[in-house]
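Quick log. Single chain, no ligands specified.
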Amino acid sequence: MKATWEKIDKNLVAVDVEVGEQQVTEALDKAFKKVVAKVNVPGFRKGKVPRALFEKRFGIESLYQDAIDILLPDAYSNAVDETGIEPVDRPEIEVEQFGKGQTFKFKAKVTVKPEVELGEYKGLEIPATDAIVTEEEIDEELNRLQQRHAELTVIDEGAAENGDVVVIDFEGFADGEPFEGGKAERYSLELGSDSFIPGFEEQIVGMKTGDFKDVEVTFPEEYHAENLKGKAAVFKVKVHEIKRKNLPALDDEFAKDVSEFDTLDEFKQDLTSKLKERKEKDAEQARETAILEKVAENAEIDIPQAMIDSEVDYMVREFENRLRMQGMTMDIYYQFSGQSESALREQMREDATKRVRNNLVLEKIAKQEGIEVTEADLSEELESLSGMYNRPSDELRDIFTRNGNIENLKGELVLRKTLKFLLDNSKVTTEVA
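-> predicted structure:
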C-alpha cells in the first residue's frame, strides 16, 4: 500500500491511497463469500453457487461495494499511520479506481489537528492566591451542615416561605389546553431551589395549606418543547402540606452527630484544617487556570469546528452521567430547567472551545520542551487510581490496556506535567487575587 498527502486548506488535507492488486483480489473473494450466502439461484442451495456462474449472472461489479467496504477501514487507518497525520473528524472518501485486476485508489479528505504557533509561555506573571480560612467561612460551612441535618416538620399554621418544602398538586395549561409533562400530584418542591420554570416558586411563597392558586408563568424562549417556547401558561396549584426545616443547635451533641469528635471546638478545628486544605487546592487550581489562560492567549490557533463539536459531545455525556448519578435523566432536566438540548450545547460551546485550545497549547509545549511520561509516572498514577477505586494497580493497567485507554491516560499525564512545568517557570506577583 502507498499513501501520500497534501494540505489543501488551513486544517484540511487530502490523502491519496493506493492498495495493491493482491489485496483487491482477496477482498473480492471475501465479498463473494458474504454475498453468495444470501443469493437464491434455482438448482443451488444458498452459498453453493459457483463463482463463475455468479459472475456471469450478476456481474463481478456486484461485489465491488462489499469489497470496498472490506478494504477501506484498514486501508484508511494504515494510511493515517503511514503519513503521520492526526485526523479530528470523519474523512470524506472519493473512490478513484476499483476493479478486478486493478489496484484500489481512493482519496480521503479529512480535517486534521491545527498547527499551533506559540507565544511567550515561560516567565509569565500570575497573581498570588491565599488559603486563609476566615471565621465567616467556618460559620457558612457549619450552616450548610445544619441545613443538611435539619428535620422537616409539617406546619399547620402560617404561609410558605423560601426554604420550605411544599407538597403540591399542579396542572399546567397553555392556550387553555393541558400540555404533556405539566401535571403532577403530591410533588415535593423546595422553594428557592430554582428547579421550576422562572417565576413559579416565587408565586408559591405566601400560600397556606389547603390553598388553591393559578400561577402564571412564561416559558423561556429556549424551552425544550417547541410548542411551549415563549408561551404564557397557567398552572393550577393546590398546597397539601408545608414542611419547615428545624435546624439543630450548634453544640457538642451536634458535633457528635455529624463527626467523630466529642466537642464542637474539636470539630471546628478539624473543619478549619479541611477547609484550609481545600482552599490550598483551589488556590493551586486558580494558579493553573491563570497561567494556562495567559499562555493560550499568547498562542495563535485556527481551531477546526469538528474539534469543538466533539468536545461539546463529550461535555454533554459528562453532564448526563452526573445527572444519572443524581437519579435524573436528560429529559427530566430539560423539562424542569426549561432548556433545550441545542441551548445546553450552545451554553457549553465557549468552555469547549477553551478546553480544546488549552489542550492544543499544552500538547505543543510538551513536544517543544520534550516533556514525556515515564513508566514511573504511569505506575504512580495507577497506584493513585488503585486507592481511589479499591482495585489492584496491575488490574487497572490491564483494563486500561484492553479498552485502548492507556494512551489516553498517558496523554492526560503529559498535560499535567506540562502544566506543572508552566507553573514552575512562572513568576508569582505579591498582589493577592
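The chain has 13 helices and 13 strands.
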